C-alpha cells in the first residue's frame, strides 16, 4: 500500500521540497486556539519539520488524546489521517495503530494533563515497549481546555491564575521517559523554533520511542507571574545543553567544527544527528549521566533543553515482536486463513 | 440397601486439592471413557487460588449425550480431607464412596446409605515410591487404575492415551503403566469389582470433538483473520489469549520465522481495548479477551468505538460478578453492561455461542461483522463453555470464504469516486465508507473523533448534525439485525401456548430439560437466541406464544431487559427463570422451575407415549 | 411591516465571540431586569473552546415565569460577524436586530421582515478609548446602555448592580457608569426608543433566588456534611467542585485557619471515585462530581461500592454523549449507565433534581441516603440546570436536622452486642451494620472485599452464601424505594386518560407545555419522577392512565427502559417523547409532540375557557 | 475516637510487648498461598514489626488491590480493618481513607502487577501527593494469581516458566518512587527477615510516603533458572547498601560505632533511624545521589537493597491540605452544617 506522492502544481513562487510539496501541503485547518497559545507554534514547527524532511503527508498518522493540545492535529497535516481519541489514552491507540501498519510514521500529540495526570500509566508503558513514534507533549502545566487547573507537571510551589499554590511534586516527563526506556528524549520550548524544529526532525527519523517534552505556555491560564510555565519564566530559566542539526542522507555534510564541542550520532535510517554542545562535556548518548544531569539541573531550578538522550541502536516493538516486514493490515485471506485441511487435523487431535 | 445401577449413565466426582497434579489424571480418566465411544461431560470446579484449596472435577458419563451438569453425584472419589464431610454428604443414596483408607476413619465419618470402597493409596505409594513428588503424582494414576477396575474402563484405552500424552517422552511410559497396573491389580484383588456403575464400549460419540470454548474461540480468531491481539490476564479469559498465542506460533509464522501477527500483553484493560481500537482503525483485524471487570474498565473506549465507528472484537468470558465476585465461577451477567456499554446513547452487537463449535464459528464471524458494521462486536462466552472440555460438532470451514472487510475505499476507488464523506450514508443502510490511513496522497484522509462531527468528519457542535449522525447509527443497528446469526427453534411435539427463550451455555441444560418436560407431558417450544440486536423471528416467536419463559444465568434477568426494551414486549408475558449461584445451570433446575410455573397455571400434562415417565 | 409588541415577555439573544468578556455584561443585563421584579431565564450556549469561537447568551424575559427555553428570538444583539447570517435568520418575523454599524453592511445582509437598529459601537469605543482591552470591555457595557434605552430597562438598577459587582474596587465605578451613559445617551439621541419590546417594573419575582445548579449542589454537599471531595475536571461538572472549594473556604475553616475538609484534584476519575470510596469506607462523607466519560471510567469501582456496600455520593452533571460527544451541550443520557453501573448484577440509587433549589436539597439528602443505605447515590444534574442561572425557591434548612449516619456500631455498641456480622441482615431491611476502622481493639473489625463472602465478611466461594448476599442486596434496594424522594403530581383540570412522566431539567418546559396543551383543550396528568428506584406511586400513576408519555432528553428513552423493566409496565403503554440535539428541551417541542400523538388518537379538545386559544 | 488498647490475658509463656499484646494478637487467618511463597514471609515480617513497635493492631488499616500479594492482609493483623479493593487502584482508596482519619496507620499492600502494570498511574500519584502510608510492593515479577504472565517489573531478557523471553524494559518502582517524591524508599528481599523487619518498622514510623519494594519470589511461576526474581538469583545479586536499626523513643541508645560508617536520622515522631553503612559513603539522605546509585547498580545487574533514601522532614498530604488535627470522620453536625441563618445570607446574595 506504499504510495508515492504525486507532486502538485503550485503558485510558482512557493518553495517546494524534494517531493514537490510546498509548506501549504503540510498545513491543516485554521486553529481555534487562543491567540498566542504556545501550541500553535508547535504545530508550525511540526509543519516545518515534515516539509523539510520531504515526508509524504499522507504517510503520517496523527494521534492525540483530549485537550487544547490534543486538538492541534486538526491544525496541521490536513492530508494525514488523524485520531483524536479519549483523554489520556492516546498511547494505547497509537500502539495498536503502529502494530497494524509499521510503514507509516506515527506522531502522537498530547498535553501535560493528558500524559502526566490521567495518562501517566499509558505514557510509561508506551515508552517501555519502545513503540516507534514521535510523542510530543505540549506542556503548559495546566488543564487549558477545562480552564486552568493544575496538571501533574506544574511545579511544586507554582501559583495558579486564581492564586492557589501547587503542593504536589511535579512529574518530569523527560526524566521519566529516560528511566522507562525511551531511546530519544528531548525537551524544548514552543518559543524557540530554531531549537524545536530540528528536535522534531530528529524524532521523526528516530526508529524507536522518541519523546519531546515541549514547554508551551497557556496564555489564557498559565502565563502570569508566579507560574513556572510562562513565556518569561521559561526564557529566563531555559538552559540548552546542546543544539541539534539533522543531516539526512541526501544532504552532504559540510560545516566543520573543532572536534571537542561536536557529537555526531548516526541513526538507523542513515541520517546523522549533529550535536553542538552548549554544556561542557554533555554526552547525549550516556543515559545515566543524562538522568543525573536532569535531576541536578532541576534541583538548581533550571530547565534543561535540547536533545537530552539518544540511543543510536534503538529497538522497537516490531523488532521485539519479530513481525513480518509487510504491514499486518495488508495480509489477506491467503496469508491468514489456514483453511479446512488444517482444521481437519485440529479436529482429529481433539478426539 | 439400595444400590445405584447404571451403564454409561452416571456422575463421578473427584475431590482433590488444588495444585496436587490431579487434573491430568482426572482428564485422562474422562477421555478414556470418551475413547470407548461413550459421551462424557466433565467440569472443573476450582478456587481462585493456586495451591492448597479444594478443587473438584465432575464427570458426567452420559450415553444420551446430555452434556449439561446433572447435579448430584453417584460416585465420589474423596481425596481431600478438608472437604470430606461435604463430599460424603453429596453422594446420592445408594451411591458410592471411594477413599484413601491408609489412615483408619471412625464409622461416624461415613453414611449408612452409601457403598464405601477404601483403598490404602498413601500406603501403596509410600511402599512403592521414595520421592515425594512421585508419590504425589502416581497416587493419582493409581486411583485411575483402580477406577478402571471398579467401573470397567478399558485399561488399554487408558494406556493408549498415556502413550499419546507422552509422545516424545517415551521414558515416562513404563512408570505410568506400572502405576496404572498397581491400582488396577490392587482393586481386582482386594475390592469388589465392578460396582453398580459401569462403562460399556459404545458408538455414541461419532465424529464429535472434545474442546474448550476459549481454545475454539481463539482458533476462530485465527480463521477470522485477526492479526492483532491486545489483552490483559483475567480469569476465565486468559486461556483464550494464550491459546491464540499458541495457534499463531503454529499457523502464522512465515517461511523465515517471522510473525504474521502481533500480540501485546497490555498493562490493563483500558490499554488493551485502546490498542485494539488503534489497530482496527488502521485496518488490521484486532481483538481482546477479557471478563466482567475488564468490560467495566473499557466502557469509555467502547463509547468511542461506537461513536467513531471502529470495528473491534471483544471476547467476554463471563464470570460471577459484580466486582471481583467469584472469578472462578460461571454466570451470564455482563449482558447489559456489554449491550449498552458506556455513557450516552449506545447499542452494541453481541453474539452468544453455546458450545466450542459455535465459539469457533462466531469467533471467526465476529471479525466480518465488525468490519461490515464498523462497530464493536462482543462474543459472549462464559467460564462454563470457555474453560471446560465439551463434546461438540467438529469445526468446519469453507475454503472459498474470503475475509469480508466491509466498506473500505482504496486509492483507486477514491480516484474514481466523485466525493468521499466518512459518515455519508451512501447506501441507506447506515453504514458509511471508510479509508485506511495512508491510502491516498490527497484524497480520503479524515479525522476520527469521539466528538460530534458532520457527514464529512468535520468537527461541529451543531445540533442537527449531531442528531443526523445519532439517527444514522440507529439505522446501522437496524441493518445489523439481518447480519447477525439467526435464532434456532425447537418445536415441541405438541402444539403449545408456551415458549422458552435461552442463550449461550444454558443450551445443553435446556435441551435436557425440554426432554424431561416432554416426558412428563409438558410441552414448550424453545428458541435459542444467538445474537443481539434481535431479529424479527424472535419477536414473532414471542407473539406466537401466550407465555414465554426466559432462562438466564444472572440475577437481574438481563437479556429479558433487552428483549422487553428492544422488542417492546409486555414484561408480563416473559417469566424469568434465573440461576446465578455461580455453578452451571442444570436441567433439573430449569425443568423444575418451568413445571412449577405450569402447575400454577394448572396445565394438564399431555403424555406423548403412555406411561413414559 | 409586522412589529412584535410585548411587555415583559420576549426573548433577547446576544451573539458574541468566546473570551471577549461579553459574559459579565450580558449577565448584568439579565440581572437588571430581574431586579425590576420581572422574571428572566438566561442560557449560555458556548463552544468547547476557550477563545475565539461563537457563543450566545439567550435571555427569556417572562412575566409568567416560564423558565424553560422558549425557542426563537425576538431581539438579536448581533456582535459576532462569524455567525451573522445564522443570527439574522433566527429572528422571528417582525423582530429586531441590533448590530455594530461602524462598517457599513450591504442591504443583502439584512432581512425585509425585521426591524434593524445599527449603532457604530466600534467607532464609539475607538473615539473614547485608546487601550485595546478597554475598547473590548466597554463596548459591551455600551451596548447594555443602549439596550436600556431601547427596551426601557431602568439605568439606575443597572448602576446599582455594577456598584455591587465592584464593591471594594470603587475606582472602577465611574468608567463603567460613563460607558453605560455613553451607550444609553447615544441610543436616546440617535435611535428610535423604545422598540416594541419593553420591560416594565413588576413584582413577579418574589423571594425567589437566582442560582446555578452546580453551585447549589455544592452548597448542598456542605449542608450534607461532606468533608472529602475528590474530583477530576470535566465540563460541565467542574464548577460544582470549584464551588465546593469556595464554600469550604468560607464555611469550613476553623478558628485557627485549619480546614475541616479535604479536597483532592485527582489524576483521573478512577482515582477520584477510589478516593471517595476509601474515605466513605473510613467514615467520612465523601463525593465526586463528574460527567458521562467519568461515569464510564468509574464503572468497575461502582460495582465494588455496590457489592462492598460503601456509601458514596456522585454528582453527574450530564452532557451530550456518547464518548466526548458535545461537552458543552445538555442531555439526560447517563441514566442507564448510572442506574446499572458496572458488570454483574447491580442497581444504583439515582436522584433527579429539577432546579437549583432541588440541587441543594438533594445534594444534602444524598449523603444521608448513602449512609442509610450503604450504597452509592447519584445526583443527576445536567448542563442546563448545572451551569445556567435559574430562578428558583430559596434554599431552606431545618436547624434541628442532624446528619443521619445510618447503621454504624460504636465501641460501646460492640461491647453491648452479642455478635457483629458485617453483612447480617439484623433488621430485615437488607441493610446491615458497619463499623469504622479503628473503633474497637478486639471487636467489629472486618475485611471489605469485592469478592464473595459470608454474612460475617469471611471470604467464601460458596454458591449459597453468594446468592444469600445478592438477594439481600435486592431487599436493600426495596427498602430504598421508601427512602428516596417521592414523585410530584400535577393533575389536569379535566379528567383524562392521558398521563406524562418527566424528570430533571425538563421540568419548566413541561409545566409550560401542560399550560399550552390545556389552553388548546388537551388535558394530561403529569408526574415528575424524582428518584430511582421507583416507588409504588409511580406504578399507580401509570396504571391509572391508558396512555402515558415519557419525556426525556436522550435518544434511547433511557428512563423509559428503567420504568418498563423495574415496574413491569407494558412498553406499548409508554410513548417516548425524545429531544436530544443538545439544546435544552422546549415547551413548544413537548406540546407539539404530545398534541400530534393525541391528534393521531383523535382526541377531541375540551376547551377550559371558551375561545382561550 | 482514639482508643487505648486493653492488654489481654495470655498464656504466661508467650512474650508480650509494651501494650501487653503477644505476637499472636498481630496474626491473621491462615494463609492460602502456596507453600514457600515469598509473600508469607513478608506477612510474618509485618507481624513482627507491628509487635515490636507496640502498635495497637486495631489502629492500623490494611488496604490492598488484587493478586496473591493483595490477598495477604487477610493473613496478618486480624484485629485491623482491611480493604481488598480492585486491581491496581489501592492507592486511591488508601488516599481517601487517609483523608478521612489521619489518626490511623495506613498499610498498603500490593503486587508488582497491581502497582507497576495496571496500577502505575495511581502508584505514581500517591507518591507525588506524599500520602502518609507504608506502601509495600510484594514484587515477584509475575502475575501469580493469573498463573505466571510477566509483569512490568520483570527484567528485560528474563525467562518465563513457559520459556518466553521478556522484551520490555523493567520498571524499578523504588527508583520511580524516589523520582516522584516519596520520602522513605527502601528495597528488600522476603528471604532476608533481619533486613526487612527494621525497614518495615522505619516505614511505619515515617510520617510521609514510604515505599518498600520487597522482592518476593513466586515459587509456583517464577522461581526457575532464567528468572531474575528467583530465590537463588536474588541471593546472588543482592547488594545491601546499609543495615537499618530503628530506635524508638522509649528505647535508650546503646551500641556505639566509629562515626564514619554510621548515619543517624531522627524522624518526626522522635524515633531514630540508625544506618550502618555497608557501602562506602552511601548517603541515604541524598536523593539525587541515591537515584544515580540505583541506576548504576542496576546497570551492573545488581539489586541494591536497604534504606535507599529517607527525608527526615517529610511533608504529607494533610499538611499540604492544612486539615484540622482531629480526624474528619468524627466531625459532627455542629462542626459541619452552617445552618439556616447562613443560608438566609446566601439566599439574599442570590437576589
Ligand atoms: C475522561 C475525561 N475526563 C475529563 C475530561 C475533561 N478534560 C478535557 S481536556 C482536559 C485536560 C487537558 O489538559 P492538557 O492535556 O494539559 O491539555 P491542554 O488543554 O492544557 O493543552 C480534561 C480534564 C475528559 N475530556 N475526559
Ligand atoms: C480489572 C482486573 N483485571 C484483571 C484481573 C485479574 N488479575 C487478578 S490478580 C492479577 C495480577 C496480580 O499480579 P500481582 O499484582 O503481581 O500479584 P501476585 O499474584 O503476583 O502477588 C490479575 C491480572 C482483575 N482481578 N481485575
Ligand atoms: S486555553 Fe491555554 S492551552 Fe488552551 S488554547 Fe488557550 S492558551 Fe492554548
Ligand atoms: S502463585 Fe506465586 S505468588 Fe501466588 S501464592 Fe503461589 S507462590 Fe505466591
Ligand atoms: Mg496542559
Ligand atoms: Mg506479582
Description:
The complex is a heterotetramer, with 2 copies of chain A (351 residues) and 2 copies of chain B (613 residues). Chain A is built from 12 helices and 13 strands. Chain A is α/β, with parallel strands linked by helices. In chain A, strands 2-1-3-4-8-7-13-9 form an 8-stranded mixed sheet, with helices on both faces. In chain B, helix 17 (507-519) packs across helix 20 (587-600). A 7-stranded mixed sheet of chain B has the order 11-10-12-13-15-14-21, sandwiched between helices. In chain B, helix 13 (356-373) links the parallel strand 14 and strand 15. Chain B is built from 20 helices and 23 strands. Strand 17 of chain C pairs parallel with strand 2 (81-84) of chain D, so a sheet runs across the interface. One thiamine diphosphate sits between chains A (66-69, 87, 111-114, 138, 140, 142-146, 151, 218) and C (232-234, 269, 293-294, 297, 324).
Strand order of the largest sheet of chain A: 2-1-3-4-8-7-13-9
Low-confidence stretches of chain B: none
Name the chain pair with the biggest interface and residue counts per chain.
A-B, 65 and 72 residues
Structural class by SSE content of chain A: alpha/beta
Largest sheet composition of chain A: 8 strands, mixed
Shape of chain A: globular
- Helical run tally of chain A: 12
Quickly give the structural class of chain B: alpha/beta
Strand arrangement across the biggest beta sheet of chain B: 11-10-12-13-15-14-21
Q: What helical percentage do the residues of chain B reach?
A: 25-40%
Small molecules bound in the structure, each named once: thiamine diphosphate, iron/sulfur cluster, magnesium ion
Termini separation of chain B comes to: 24 Å
Radius of gyration of chain A: 21 Å
% residues in beta strands of chain B: 15-25%
Average residue pLDDT of chain A: 93
Gross geometry of chain B? globular
The portion of residues assigned to helices of chain A is 25-40%
- End-to-end distance of chain A: 43 Å
Say what oligomer this is: heterotetramer
Number of strands of chain B: 23
Q: How would you state the average pLDDT of chain B, rounded?
A: 96
